[in-house]
Amino acid sequence: MIDILRRLNPQQHEAVTSPAGQILVLAGPGSGKTRVLTQRIAYLIHEQGIKPSHILAVTFTNKAAREMRSRLERMLGRGVEALWLGTFHALCARIMRREADLLPFDSNFVIMDADDQVSIVKGILKELNIDDKLHSPNSVHGRISNAKNALTGPNEFSARTYREEVARRVYERYEEVLRANNAVDFDDLLLWAVRLLEDNPAIREKYAKQFEYVLIDEFQDTNQAQYDLLKHLSSYHHNLFAVGDEDQSIYRWRGADYRNVLRFMSDFPKAEKLLLERNYRSTQNVLDAAQAVINQNRARTPKKLFSKRGSGPRVVLYDAVDDHAEAAYVVEDILERIAAGEKGGGIAIMYRTNAQSRLLEEAFLRTNLPYRLVGAQRFYGRREVKDLIAFLRLVHNPYDAVSLNRIINVPPRGIGSKTLIDLNLQAQENAATLTDILLSLGTQGQESPYWEPFTTRGASVLADFGALLVNWREFAESSSLPALFDRILSDTGYKDYTDDGTEIGEGRWENVMELRRLAYEFEERGLTAFLENVALVSDQDTLPDAPEAPTLLTLHAAKGLEFTTVYIVGLDEGLLPHSRSFEDPEEMAEERRLFYVGITRAKDNLILVRAGQRSTFGRYEYTIESRFLEDIPEDLLRRQGVRLGVRSVNPLSQPRWSPSGSVLEESGSKEPAEPRYKAGMRVIHDTWGDGMVVETRVLGSDETVTVMFETVGLKRLAASIAKLEIVK
DNA sequence: GTGGCCCCTGTTTTT
DNA sequence: CAGGGGCCAC
User: Which residue's CA shows the smallest distance to C1' of B14?
Assistant: First the structure.
């Protein structure tokens, strides 16, 4: 085994070897915080003789947990299976399955994914006769989720407005539905774990006694429930080691509160605070740019990032004509880098929204350059994948009505809306669940008390499906997961259903086969583990360890990673910062942190890219340069690309794709226009309604008008295209 | 009961 | 532009 403390700088060394107690390590990007965490665990086990089973370490992603475990095993030269290491959600699920006796569900509960959660809310809105236009399922669910993360139950839910009252009523019912389905949602994993520990002192003590040392990574992104969990789990030995960086807190919308970092110090007055400022990752230019961006935020612990890697190349700022040119530029630039010997695997392209990946993917496909897209959603969100998972979930937990509803008529087996209404009616009249009726029909057929009320046809199709379910459940008792998977495929004729011979159909079937491969991986661990894994995978978890090809990922997914070359695209107002953050300074500060996280992923090269116009909803609109770019000192930058003034032609008729922006020659020759608008003027736009002119500029033969609209915020328009009516 | 067509709406981020 | 829901014809 290698020397654990080798190659640590004095600050890192101090953190790794800190004595027992509460330690807060504030670590800038690239300062080796994951390393500190890993080595501290190794130190505790090897030097302090702590049993691995007495250590609890919480990471942000499953992937981070996996990597940490294998690194530890390499360092210590032995397995550390007993070490409690994983994400909050995975650890909570583990504790809850063990202690299910004390909870209002069985130990084989299912975990509802985001889609399931919203569709449950949607169903409840319908049931309660609430207009889902006024109260969108998404926003109602968001309120419920926020409440849960703040440990607020439906009874304590404040309902001062009608909107909140609606949310409260849905919340109440939502909980009933989950219980009836023997299900929990993501937030429940945390919520019920906290309740379990709070309501059962003996259980709390059991775990708190076990965990002599508790360690947590990415502490700035913990929410109330997670914070409480940490306090409970460390309430006996009081050894809590937290590592984090306020500047990298990017999950506020999920209830995370970077002020937990401050709370830590006030809750544990004897806590020791350590700072890691030496950056081992980036060049000084990258760090200076990052620093310039983040310094605009208040309420943070000032840190001075420094690097000994030299200043490095300047940050490139590329101004593309439009979003197609943006993607084309990025891919061409990457081709050049690769031709010059750079490794594709060290390159990443980051963006604010997933939708932005599409044009980039298309550009990659055109050049035949391979790429990697990070995103679990891409696979697990597929209809065919969700279908198969629903079958498996139903076998695992037949009371999972969400899954049942999903696949009761998939592939079509004659159970249409009429039969479903009858089925629901029967369930209601007999105070039974749909599953009870199906299983009864499936085992007893015509002898079943439920046979009579249905039409003959209805009863028989339901009985057939019930019989399938019964058989699968029996089969699952004695057979392996892959066998069950194949049995379901053949019993349902799923291949014929998905694979219609078209390319798309084949793609769908390939996805099914990919899931099947995954099922094989879980042959030993079984169905429960498989489903839990499927429910808890994150986007980051899908990132290959050593990708050969450039990686496309969201800024959120980039947290904790590093690349030689980083492109951040879409540096336009409305995208980064996202328009949803315009009204709330807290949200704006978070957008800034998100940008900061992106910048600090870069080791050597940072390329910032924006597009002068961009299609949203299929329509082209002019964009305004991101406000964050103004914060980066000019002497760190190298500006490239085409500054698009304004063209007097319809942007829709422009060529879509052009190599490095040779398009723009056409302005200039026409005579300048007279300005018609001026700042302060009130105007009306066909689509966006009332607005006020903020700025106007004459460029070439046209005039660019920047207008603040009441409905959609800032827009930049070409006067010749947008019909702006002036209000006196 | 199913499948196809048309209209509408809506884009953050994800454990 | 695209995915979902509603409506209509078989």
Answer: A538
